[in-house]
Amino acid sequence: MVRLTPLRLLLCAAVALCTFFFSSFIPCLLRRERGYDTFHERPSARFRPVPNVHFGEECSPFTAGVLDDVTLVLKIGAGEAVTRLPAYLKQRGRCKQDLLIFSDRKDNYNGFEIADALAHLPAEYRSNNPDFDVYDRIQAADGPETVPNKSDDGWRLDKYKFLPMVEWTAYKRPKSQWYIFIELDTYANYDNLYRFLASFSPKSAYYFGSPVWPEKGTVFAHGGTGFILSRAAMDKIIALGRTFGEDKHIPGTHFFGVDMKKQCCGDETLAQVLKKSGVPLRGYWPMFNGEKPSTVRFDKEQWCEAIITMHHLQEDDFTSLSQWESARLNPNKPLTFEELFTMIEPHLQEKAADWSNLSEDVFYTSIESFDNCYKACLKDGSCMQFEHSGTECRLGYSVRLGHHQLPTDERKWTSGWMLGRIKTFKQAHSPCHGAHFVHANP
Question: Once rounded to an integer, what is the mean pLDDT over residues 182-186?
């Protein structure tokens, strides 16, 4: 009989722990699985009293007052004040949110003040910078109808607006606790946004969004997908900004010591300055999502997860999504990708002409027909869909709807979905037992 001395007991415990670590934790890392908590359908009173919120009703978090300390910050181009802002305010601005609008030209629309984020920059920031030739033309225009659109020359100014916009926001809304930065093509699910924010205290410095991982440099939240700063994060970046400001009482007079001419993007530069302020990004993809319903990759990573934002929606996308939301069977439940899939599923078919379903995981240039492309997909057990463009066969390992694609001189797109495999996937992963609140990465 072996005598269990204290040393042997300790060694046995160590072996057991190592076995658990290598059999459980390491495989999860190799499979890159995300941890998650269950999204609370009705947040508890962790940081504040919780009134009764009628989830699923339009504007419910605003009507209940639970987002009274939240400021939405909308960044637009000067030309969009005429082309896109009116429709945005009519459809998505009717919840009486606390809304700030920033552009590259001062304006006003239906009582909403549009601030010029670049108005207070000293002349030396604009001199010898051809990007600001666009700014000068915008200011000289007779009206917003004649200024360059964001899709034209106006985009060159976009990166310059981020840092002044953040400073201006803190100056204009010093008592707000959360700041949500969005664009005209950003969808926000306000029910899930409230559920998300209820898990955090604005007294801690937070910077949330969908992470972009550059090869070199700081991980940053993608601007168009929407990002969030807490009150404490705002305080930190403003404290850093005071060391650079030309006038300590007027925000937007500097770029925090950054030479913006050499920078790629404003959202990336903002992340660099926030990190220098002691506020790194906490990434919550896929809840903050850079796709819209027709381009989302539906798979095991995007199924039970809750949806907070989506991006790249045009007016017809907003309209169809709004109509679908109004007919949800359980609107009081957190919106997930599993439920959103029911919006696109009726459009999936074995063969769709003049259609690209955005398959992009495997490419074959030697497969010359749709039927042979189908056979390649059938042979690949991971393939959920495929498309043939006349010159190329592409396989997709996720399910995506895609878009209408007209033929060109040499190419004609035809797409197909593996309906049996999609059914099997749903049977394996549904129903979801609560919406997933993914753990931050980074």
Answer: 97
- Contacts of 245-248 with C-beta under 8 Å, sequence gap 24+, read 246/122, 247/120
Task: Report the mean per-residue pLDDT for the chain.
Answer: 89
Element (H, E) at 409: none
What tens digit of pLDDT does each residue of 334-385 get? 999 999 999 999 999 999 999 999 999 999 999 999 999 999 999 999 999 9
pLDDT in tens, 28-51: 433 456 799 988 788 765 555 567
Q: What is the pLDDT of residue 15?
A: 47
Burial of 83-103, coded b for 16+ CB within 10 Å and e otherwise, reads bbbeebbeebbeeebbbbbbb
How much is the pLDDT for 49?
A: 58
The full 3-state SS of 268-295, as one line of letters, equals HHHHHHHHHCCCCCEECCCCECCCCCCC
Distance, in Å, from the CA atom of 71 to the CA atom of 198, rounded to the nearest integer, reads 15
Domain positions in the chain are 60-280, 309-436
Q: Which two tokens stand for residue 69?
A: 């300390």
Determine contact, residues 269/260, Cβ cutoff 8 Å.
Answer: yes
Instruction: At 84, list the tokens.
Output: 């896109």
What's the fold here for domain 309-436?
Hepatocyte Growth Factor (3.50.4)
Cα–Cα nearest to 83, from 135, 152, 139, 132: 152
**What is the reported pLDDT for 409?**
84
DSSP lists the bridge partners of residue 207 as: 229
Fold (topology level) of 60-280: Spore Coat Polysaccharide Biosynthesis Protein SpsA; Chain A (3.90.550)
